[in-house]
Design brief:
Rossmann fold, Arc Repressor Mutant, subunit A, 19 helices, 3 domains, 377 residues, alpha/beta, 12 strands, nine-stranded mixed β-sheet, three-stranded antiparallel β-sheet
């Protein structure tokens, strides 16, 4: 065998298209977006990364021995084709960073995903979306505000972006759907592993009225480190991020930090100073985040969205309310209240108040929460 002095032997050329090889590299858990960015800048393509020697790979920041070995051992054509086959069987589209349908706003963040898995559709207007995020362990107040924001934003034709998580995220998605608008959920798992599992039905509705997105390959489980990565995609897709509830240390605050790094506007909903779930949002407001009491506060920050603010039209359902129903709504105020407090605040017998609450629920103006707690919808 002839030895060529001064030259390092290259690995065999892999016979597969660049798209398939990109998808294959994306299946390596250790090849996170920031490392992949540096590797693509160093070598120029997935094919060149896969053809590189161990020494060449090790020259890229973040390529430790385990990742280097994973790339060297990867059967890229087989791994990429397997992902494409499984995705096609599930009706999932695979979009790479080089594809024209890749979301333009997301493409411009420092470390965009090289591959997006999509179930549903993305429309051009989704690029002006607003993210609504917050605590998983939220309060009735937080759930009420998140649903209302989702509904109001969707009613103004704004796509609501969130993370499908328990708590605030799920409420924001439900509000957008109730408002007849579009919503996009960014998952921290593969799209064939809906998490949390109780949101499977919600996920199906979102796919019908927007899209489910993930940078993680099919089969990826809900690993803890997935969710901070997922958060940068939520903020990257949106014009701005609204944090509804967040404790002093919260994943929602990570999303807010990433939004600032990406040049997005950050907003927060104020909460009671005695509530741990409001510590993070109140701090954001002190640090300069826009204070949000309703969707109008968000829309006014963007000239192209401010035009969608309603002109004071009366809610058709409210126009048909009886005087006792109007008085009950006024007595409830803005915050959620237990039924005992509502009864004490309203004249007349308790049975009449209960009947009025039921009628308002049917009309979609009042929502009941666990523990016989009611709030205006």
């Amino acid at each position: 065998m002839v030895e060529w002095r001064g030259l390092r032997p290259k690995r065999p050329v892999i016979m597969a298209n660049e798209r398939t090889l990109t998808i294959a590299l994306n299946t390596l858990p250790r090849l996170r977006a920031a490392i992949a960015r540096d590797a693509y800048e160093r070598f120029g393509s997935a094919a060149a990364i896969l053809a590189a020697t161990a020494e060449e790979l090790a020259s890229v920041r973040g390529f430790g021995p385990a990742l280097t070995q994973a790339v060297l051992a990867l059967d890229a054509p087989r791994a990429g084709e397997e992902q494409e086959r499984r995705a096609a069987a599930l009706g999932i589209a695979l979009v790479t960073l080089d594809d024209p349908e890749y979301p333009e706003r997301l493409r411009l963040i420092p470390d965009p995903p090289r591959v997006l898995y999509r179930l549903g559709s993305l429309l051009p207007e989704d690029g002006a979306g607003i993210a609504v995020v917050g605590a998983r362990a939220c309060t009735v107040y937080g759930r009420t505000v998140a649903e209302r924001l989702g509904r109001e934003l969707a009613g103004a034709g704004v796509t609501v972006v969130s993370g499908l998580a328990r708590g605030i995220d799920g409420c924001a998605h439900r509000g957008a759907l109730a408002g007849g608008g579009r919503t996009v959920a960014v998952l921290g798992t593969g799209l064939d592993r809906i998490y949390p599992p109780e949101h499977r039905r919600l996920a199906a509705e979102i796919a019908d009225h927007g899209a489910l997105l993930s940078e993680f390959p099919l089969g990826a489980e809900p690993e803890p480190w997935h969710f901070p990565l997922r958060n940068r995609v939520i903020s990257g897709l949106a014009r701005g991020v609204v944090v509804v509830e967040a404790a002093a240390r919260s994943g929602a605050l990570v999303t807010a930090d990433m939004a600032l790094e990406q040049g997005r506007e950050v907003f927060a909903v104020p909460g009671p100073v005695t509530a741990p779930t409001s510590a993070g949002t109140n701090r954001l407001i002190r640090q300069g985040a826009g204070l949000v009491e309703g969707a109008g506060d968000v829309l006014e920050a963007f000239p192209e969205l401010a035009a969608r603010l309603p002109g004071g039209a009366t809610d058709p359902a409210a126009a048909e309310l009886s005087e006792p129903e109007l008085k009950l709504l006024a007595a409830m105020g803005a915050g959620p209240l237990p039924i005992d407090e509502i009864i004490r605040a309203c004249p007349g017998p308790a049975t009449q108040t209960a009947a009025l609450l039921t009628a308002l629920e049917i009309k979609g103006l009042v929502r009941q929460h666990p523990g016989k707690v009611f709030a205006r919808a």
